[in-house]
What does this fold into?
Amino acid sequence: MSEAKKVIVIDDEPDICRAVAQTLTLHHYQVDWFTSAEKVLPLLNTQWDGVIIADINMPNMDGLEFLIKAFEIDAQLAIILLTGHGDISLAVESMRKGAYDFLEKPFATDTFIDSVKRAQDHRNLVLENRRLREELDAQSGPGPRVLGNHPKIKELRRTLTRVKDTPANVMIMGETGVGKELVARFLHDHSKRAKGPFVVLDCGAIPDELMDRELFGDYKLNPPPNKHSPSGKIVAADRGTLLLDNIENLSPGAQMKFLRFLEEKQLRSIGSNECMAVDVRVLSSSTSDIQALVDQGQFRADLYYRLNVIHVRVPPLRERVEDISLLFENFLRLASSRYQIRAPRPTLNQKAWLQTHTWPGNIRELRNVAERFVLTGDHSVFGAGESDSDLSLNLSMAEQVNRFEKTLIHDALKRCAGRLKSVHAQLNIPRKTLYEKMQKYGLDKNDYKNDL
It folds into this structure.
């Protein structure tokens, strides 16, 4: 997306066009102006990344007609309408039809520039969301997806793509919640083994005394004629993939037996003297430093080398902050589809919170926030568990003032059930200022109409 701040000005009076253009140029905007709205329409498209300022009263095609035709090209263009005295009802109608803002002439320069800046921010957000959706669509397909555009994620995808069809064992490392099992599923579902079973054994959830039975099966529990089909996870994964999650918890005895299986590709279950060949690709995952456990004598070095033929690390969210918006958008869509609920849209402040939160639970925590947001529509999920004082420590004075101001307006809207006349009377601020503040903070009066 271009960084240039583009503005198109439309007014049938050239002197007004020049004056507006001069003001914008002084504030570092790139300005083109026209005295005819018809000439502007061919310049617009869904990727146009600027702001359009148009007078309402113009011959041939007035501002309202231009608005309607422009929205046929892209219904999310950022259009500000300029009005003269007596045009307020027409301006309100324009706002209902989707205009970003309207300004009554003459207007203060600061008010004008602030409106243009907010409109530009809005357009940037629209285009950014579209880019994220396009990236999601581009990475969509059968099976799980490893989403993200951070260099570490791109390198991870390249590695997984290179090794997915090899028989090599893969060790997947990463913090809790980063998506290690998803990476394992990606390897399985995109490999030649995709039609075979994908079996997961959480080594940390099985007591040591039951580990052998769970992993290798028990002949005593599966007597003839089923003696060649013991009930362990290894046999269950035959011709497919076995994921040993939390591999660091594998008991010493099970480590020795599993090493023998990897070397011989033969399985002997408990209580049986017979061996059977099993074709399994083994993936393992851990949050621990297995090499350190090897150095401390807590994990077999020979087994570690067998399991760690290919080593991949899944980075935590804090190392790939630029991917958070993409992932959150994906989780909103998935939750919306799963629960058949239209996903609410996060505000700019909430999107900023997503970028600054430390995400100790990583992707699992991010998915949880998205699902709760879809299910409840409760905006408090952004920052749940953190006190206002904790959050304020990381905020500038201006940001803290904005938080306080937004809270005041939110509370007034709730008390007045969205009735703006009552709100601006209670807060003792002009109606126009109230509109501007509500737009700034992403507050919609319709969200409060059922609060009484």
Q: What stands out?
A: Residues 319-448 form a domain with the Helicase, Ruva Protein; domain 3 fold (CATH 1.10.8.60).
